[in-house]
Amino acid sequence: MSLPLPSTLSPSKVSSFTNCALAFRFTNIDRLPEPPSLPAVKGTTVHRALELLFDAEPADRTPERARQCLEQALTEMEQDSDYQGLDLSPAEAQRFARDASVMVERYFTLEDPSTVEAVGVEMMLTADLGGVTVRGIIDRLELDSESHLVVTDYKTGRAPSPDQLGSRMGGVHFYSMLCEHVLGRRPVRVQLVYLGGEPQIISTPTSEQSNRGTERRVKAVWSAIERACENEDFRPRPGALCRWCAFQAYCPAFGGDPAQAAVNLAGPT
Fold it and tell me: Do 132 and 205 sit in the same domain of this protein?
């Protein structure tokens, strides 16, 4: 008996499967609930503030306007189930807001938003890639001074070390591939805007070769997922990310039993 395939493939799913196939299964096939993550919710808040900022006319994208956007984002987050699930104390909520404010302020040290010609923010693109539905949400798609497309992705964590850079750029190259399939144009450049520790912009040009390489990688990952589902063979990959994993109780690397996850999810009979 095989396991059901995911309906779509996104940059986060590609990364999840590559990092740990078993965690991918728990999240995307078994759909086990995960507790909300403070860094992830904080990142969502900052992304929302910047999305609101780019809804304004270029001349109005000022630090003051950004502060107002963050206030709106924080107000919206009060009704968000993930934010509520953090169960922050008043002091922790103040620290959450302060950290988000610092990251929004850092953004203005990296670029001037009034000079950015955005053509889309939080832009969902979906394409068929050889029978696989691939999709992704681009934080910002813009035109450079020569009217070439540029993909920008905001990151609220710490900037990567040189040996991590290749894997971190995978998501924006995925978006570049999507642009070519959906819009008929390949972005000339993809970039990551890091707003956490060591704020910086990491940019790299794209090419026909890089897009084709991304396609091959995505198709290879999908084939591996198909085999894993057919054989019910999703293996753990112990490593540094394990410390943040919510599924250690079901992981063989920590003495757990993956089969118990489905039993617990079903609840008492």
Answer: yes
